[in-house]
Amino acid sequence: GNVSLYNKGLAKLYQILHYCEISSMYLIEPTKEYDKSWKEAMKEFGLEGTDGFWNYPEKPTSLDSYIQCTKSQASGRNLPDGFVPATTYWLIVKDKFVGHVNIRHALNEKLKRVGGHIGYAIRPPRRTKGYGIKILELALQKAKELGLERVLLTCDESNTASRKIIEENGGKFESSVLGKNGPALRYWIEL
Minimal CA–CA distance to 104: which of 142, 51, 130, 137? Predict the structure, then answer.
């Protein structure tokens, strides 16, 4: 009776609060303002045994060097071999860094096969809460602002969460190819 109604009420309240949080998210270019939560996220990715989102040959030694590197990458300067110009954004929720997205301005042959235009990562403790869907939704808007009309996204076949995120944002499956971690799924999204 009353306990069931109470639990339903709490569940509804949680949904409303989560919706308000999701709707107040935004993307920004990397900034020192979120230094503390960015460093926390780097530790979380390290504990999970991944770099989270850092795929440059050398890791930055500080947030300043990271910001400089992302600015250079956005302008196409000092790119390592095989890299293309790309703009980096951070997903901010309640004044905290929650995730990262990288939007590649063009694709080389390798990225046309696996990698695509957009890569993203959500902090491990923040996963499965809708942030992945939102970061890609916002990234698609930014990609359109960059002049892209259609974007390729790929994910490992075993990455069910990423596949759902891509499909939730309108991804149309094109093909499966062999990636570095096994089969990779390729999706296109029209902007």
Answer: 142
User: Taking residues 145-166, what's their average pLDDT?
Assistant: 96
**pTM to 2 decimals?**
0.85
What number of other Cβ atoms are within 10 A of residue 174's Cβ? 12
At 15-60, the pLDDT tens digits run 555 555 556 799 999 999 999 999 899 889 888 877 655 566 667 7
Contact 88, 30 (CB under 8 A): yes
Rounded to 10 degrees, what is the CA torsion of 121, 126, 130, 135? -30
Tokens of 168: 């939730």
Cβ burial 68-102 (10 Å sphere, 16+ → b, else e): ebbeebbeeeeeeeebbbbbbbbbbbeebbbbbbb
Q: Kindly report the three-state secondary structure assignment for every residue of 64-120.
A: HHHHHHHHHHHHCCCCCCCCCCEEEEEEEECCEEEEEEEEECCCCHHHHHCCECEEE
